[in-house]
Amino acid sequence: MRKLIIGGVVAIVALALVACGDSAPDPAAEQARLQSDYWQIDQIEKDFHHATTIKNIDLMMGLWAPNATLTVGPGVTATGTDEIRGFWLTKSLAFDPATHWISDHPAYKLEITVDGDRGTLHFECHYVDVKTGEVAATTTADFDVARIEGKWLITNMVGGTTVLEV
How many structural domains comprise the chain? Predict the structure, then answer.
């Protein structure tokens, strides 16, 4: 009986150790996931600028979470994709049919953070007039982003003006 009890305890301990396994994360896998997250968040910035350059509202709206917010000044907040779409189409000079701008950005001013399924993104936009080659407008934006159903999306944007420094 004693052998049976000792054997049972040893079997339970062994089974528990096998079930737990090595719970330490694989550093290489963690690094690969982090690099992938940075790349995907960086892609938001690229798509954002491309969408404003070619005035593609569908590309722009594909970057936003359904319940996102966009704030561009005191009392100017759009909530949800319908209001955000309305802002871009009716209030943004970047989407105004009369403007012909290329949206550029200084890469050295790009900042990305990642913490699990949440992150931040900061960049400047320099809108260059196609006809004159002059900078027509400069803006800055701070974003909260989140991985939602496997895709990084904008959950909040606060935009503002900035001065172009040479």
Answer: 1
